[in-house]
Amino acid sequence: MILGCNIGNFHFDYCWVLIGLILIPILAFAYIKYLSQDRYANFRMSNLKAFEGHSLRGWLRMIVPPLLRLAALSLFIIALARPQKIHKKEEIKGEGIDIMLVMDLSSSMLAKDFKPDRLEASKQVAAEFVEKRTFDRVGLVAFAGEAYTQCPPTTDHRMLYDFLAQLRCGPLQDGTAIGMGLATAVNRIKDSSSKSKIVVLLTDGMNNAGYYDPMDATNMAKTLGIRVYTIGVGTMGDALAPIRKRSNGEYVFGLVPVEIDEKLLVRMADLTGGKYFRAIDNASLQRIYDEIDKLEKSEIEITKIERHSEAFHGFLMWGLVFVFLEMILKYTILRSVP
Fold first, then answer.
1. d(CA 32, CA 203)
2. Where are the domains of the chain?
3. DSSP symbols for 2-15
4. Extended beta strands in the chain, E state
5. Pick the CATH number of 97-297 from 3.40.50.410, 3.90.1300.10, 1.20.1260.10, 3.30.9.10
6. pTM for this one?
7. Residue among 262, 266, 273, 195 nearest 233 (CA)
8. pLDDT, tens digit, for every residue of 224-253?
């Protein structure tokens, strides 16, 4: 009868043999009961001081040999079950997707219609999106009145998280250069060998800066086979947003109307085979990234290979060691003198 099973990192070909380990506590209990029995004849003596207590060697003689014997028996039973070490290996075949995240850093991204603000909410949701794209190369472009690559496409997502965390409004010239943001992202992945390339562009305003027209950048993306997903971020109506900046660098907030060029963003997405989304709060922004994640699945084939190597030798060797150690102690240090 052969009944294999896995326990931890070991596979046992004869798993049923391990049932024999039940004998170990039974034998231990029987030995303890044996020691507690009165096995000697009674005789009278005038003084018992010479027999008070037990020597250390006497206690060791009663405890150590049986323990070694039970340990050896346990190891022999395990060895008979034919334990094998499990070595696992994953082979990944296929290609991931090249993804460029394009993030708006204009001052209006500090608006409080998202919690804690539009920028921090966008960074958090983007990081969660990247976490799901295990095998994809993901890069990051930041833009305001100008654009730059914050992180080139990489599979080192931990590094990307650090770059996402560093994004803040202020260092770039203020404004919303949507065309430059998209053109910078397209330029980063246009020479990639990946079969699928996408750009996720997030903004909360209208194109009002930069020297690159958004539709020119969109046509370039279309020619290169790059899909563009656009996200408009902002509530409907008015939002508490920066209206000016003090001399010490602090922003003064006030209610301003939310103006997003949705027609432009829809055209950019439709022309490249992507899709436009409108996020009005944290929950809707999360749903948008979840939908993009479903639409753009990586075609990855993972083959799991499991290899076994014999491991009974170690259990057998230590069992023999305990047997010999018991014999040596029993006839030397722990020898019972008549």
1. 77
2. 1-18+57-89+305-338, 97-297
3. ---EEETTEEESSG
4. 5-7, 10-12, 83-95, 98-104, 137-143, 147-154, 197-203, 226-233, 238-245, 251-257, 276-279, 299-310
5. 3.40.50.410
6. 0.65
7. 262
8. 999 999 999 999 999 999 999 888 888 999
